[in-house]
Amino acid sequence: MDKMARIVLPLVMLLLAGSCGVKVKYSFTGASIPVDAKTISVATFQNRASLVQPGLNQVVTDALIDMCQSQTNLDMIGSGGDLSFEGEITDYKTQPLTVGGDEQAASNRFSITVKIRYVNNFDAESSFEQSFTRYQDYDSGLDLSAVEASLTEEIVKMLTEDIFNRAFVNW
User: Over the stretch 35-80, which tens digit does the pLDDT of each residue have?
Assistant: First the structure.
């Protein structure tokens, strides 16, 4: 009977724990989404950075939409989704990171910050408002305009992963 109890007890505990709170479905990507959620919406990001890069707001918006579509089975709608994102770009800058012996910058840091408001209409405790910042360093001998597109692409990818993980992977 002792052996049977070691097998059955954990199963009973798992079933009891699973019956509490909001029902969540899991995807192969590790995302946990409320079972009743059918739709998701991502409002176009506003660009409120002091240095505005034209089109960046649409790039960030599209990247988050693409991630939500590829990582969930929710229907994307224009607004008012069961789960929804709004955001704004609050910072877009480059700054010297390290100084060489000749007092010239040896490397620069290019960073983008976005502020996100996520609303989960099934579990208010999962909703959040948070800023996310990501950066890439580059050699100061390079002109920003020469590396800006590739750095922006990498940073936006990291930002959307951070936002998605915060909303759906519960980190």
Answer: 999 999 999 999 999 999 999 999 999 999 999 999 999 999 999 9
Q: Where are the domains of the chain?
A: 38-168
Please tell me the distance from the alpha carbon of residue 40 to that of residue 82, in angstroms, as a whole number: 6
Q: Alpha-carbon distance 97 to 105, whole Å?
A: 7
Strand pairing report for 83-99 and 105-120: antiparallel
pLDDT, tens digit, 9 for 90 and up, residues 116-170: 999 999 999 999 999 999 999 999 889 888 999 999 999 999 999 999 999 998 6
39 to 15, 59, 61, 129: CA distances (angstroms): 28, 22, 17, 20
Distance between CA 120 and CA 34 in Å, rounded? 9
Q: Determine contact, residues 163/132, Cβ cutoff 8 Å.
A: yes
Q: Does domain 38-168 have CATH number 3.50.90.10?
A: no
The answer, as to whether pTM is greater than 0.85, is no
Quote the CA–CA distance of 27 and 102 in Å, as a whole number.
53
Q: Compute the Cα dihedral for 21, 27, 32, 35 and give only its sign.
A: negative
